[in-house]
Structure prediction request, 207 residues.
Amino acid sequence: MKSSVDFQPLPACSHAGICEAGCDEAGRGCLAGPVFAAAVILPDDFCNPLLNDSKQMSEHNRYELRRIIEQEAVAWSVASVDAAEIDRINILNASILAMHRALDGLKVRPGAVIVDGNRFKPYRDVKWTTFVKGDGRFANIAAASVLAKTYRDDFMTEAAGHYPGYDWEINKGYPTKAHRRAIAEIGTTPLHRMSFRLLNPQLQLDL
Prediction:
């Protein structure tokens, strides 16, 4: 884990002077739970040396940054698409839909949207651009990644209390060995994505 002094502050957005929303998702590769997405519009002068790709941060820093983002952003919104809908429309479409829903929730209409990754679909008449590893390039996308991840982590931690045995409070629904073994031994829940490969052949042989 890098220390804060190793981070170079990210530019707030890709083009200063434009009301630009950054979008990112969390939970795309999970076996259970919704996919979450966030949209964030930051002031042009926003700067925080800790803000970077949320996967590179400590949990403490992510939650501290969530507080700062929610206080200082021009606008922010978090949305999700549940497991049943993921199964109906596939995870790529669900991830994009979650981002569209997050954009719908913004109290300020963006003039442009930038998205982490390389896939997106038109949102109304707003111009958009994708950036591979954008959460490590622009603060508004990094801020969206922080909100999407922390809100999803909170959801899965609470869900762990309703569906014990899957270690969701630790793995947050990702395909760990313990999670897959629990599926094999306990069965699935309404939060599991039935269109995903929930078990692997090797685990089935081991059991």
In short: The chain is about 40% helix and 15% strand. The chain has a mean pLDDT of 90. Residues 139-162 form the longest helix (24 residues). The domain at 4-206 is CATH 3.30.420.10 (Nucleotidyltransferase; domain 5).
